[in-house]
Amino acid sequence: MTFVLLGTGSVRCCSSHPGMNESICVTCISSSGLGNRPQYPSALTTANKDGIYQFELDTKCKAIQDNILSSSFKKKRYPEDYYLHIVKKLQNCTWVRRPEESAKFRSELASCCNAVHNFIASQNNTPLGSNMSYEVDSKKTILITEDIFRMLPVSSPLSVYPFKNCAVVGNGGILKNSSCGAEIDRSDFVFRCNLPPTMGSISKDVGNKTNLVTVNPSIIAQKYNKLNEKKTEFVENVAVYGDAFLLLPAFSFRSNTATSFKVYHTLQEFKATQRAIFFHPTYLKNLAQFWRTKGVKAYRLSSGFMITSAAVELCENVKLYGFWPFSKSTEKMPISHHYYDNQLPKPGFHAMPKEYNQILQLHGKGILKLQFGKCESD
């Protein structure tokens, strides 16, 4: 296969075939980067048409991925329709897992952040008597007393990695009527975010299985009055997660600490099967710096993006569901922010489009797979 750059900015892909005295050339990239499907000479066989069209499609997909990459570092805030256009084009590209790319990226993450050992605060990485800096309130520290030390697992409960197939389930409204529940539940390890509903009719779309779920302390404050009361209601509500780990940012802001510890003690008091664990603040700081070098600059990363980053290190295969930061589908149909409500995040707190841009890149490189729409029914 040879390539000819035309003066118009288009690229011609030329290939010779057995039994033909001349090469067959088609426009594989137009000057816009996304040319129309070419008109083939009548002498070209169906097999060759398919082969050249597949090459053309692969070339277009590479152009789309390059477009995503180039927009990562631009300060310009792209409109929602820009991303929807990109996603619609990307959906036509066949996803292929690329082990070499996965290993390379996993190594990058491990060298900066090391989720295997540092994702969760443990007795191994949080010495008794040390002063630990908070993630965001970094000028403030907390003394690791014996009481705090006893709350920590000896080592990370996720160190029995790698998990074979992992599902990271976001809460996007795109999950509604997706029929993804059964597929999610077949995963070896399921991550969820912010205590989402999983029971009842919605389970056919989001599944029931949960191995780890993040907990935003603001939910505990608003819904359960910081567990100064409503302890029983809280324990009954989290029972739907089975023996899952409840992961809290106890050391991100000083205001989170007491509430996070209250969750731990409440679960202990009621002998619940769930167990509270805490993000390690150093891991989160290193992770934020890692993504900052790739263009994601926000006050704080979203919990879904944090979990996705850890999952790439902890799992052989990662598939994302419900990651959709847009108000409409690629077909311009309205979509609620969450599958259970339409409450929008605080403006400026997270860099959702930039995060999603990075996730699209990881999808395009075959490092993880994004589920864009409905799942295949069993």
Automatic annotation (TrEMBL):
Subcellular location: Golgi apparatus membrane
Keyword Chloroplast: no
InterPro entries: Glyco_trans_29 (IPR001675), Glycosyltr_29_Sialyltrsf (IPR050943), GT29-like_sf (IPR038578)
GO MF terms held by the record: sialyltransferase activity
Entry annotated with the keyword Heme: no
Pfam families, per the entry: Glyco_transf_29 (PF00777)
Coiled coil: none
Membrane topology: Single-pass type II membrane protein
Main location: Golgi
UniProtKB keywords: Disulfide bond, Glycoprotein, Glycosyltransferase, Golgi apparatus, Membrane, Signal-anchor, Transferase, Transmembrane, Transmembrane helix
GO cellular component terms, A-Z: Golgi membrane
Secretion signal, residue range per the UniProt entry: none
CDD domains: GT29_ST8SIA6 (cd23991)
Superkingdom in the source lineage: Eukaryota
UniProt record similarity statement: Belongs to the glycosyltransferase 29 family.
Name this protein carries in UniProt: ST8 alpha-N-acetyl-neuraminide alpha-2,8-sialyltransferase 6
Organism: Gallus gallus
Taxonomic lineage: Eukaryota, Metazoa, Chordata, Craniata, Vertebrata
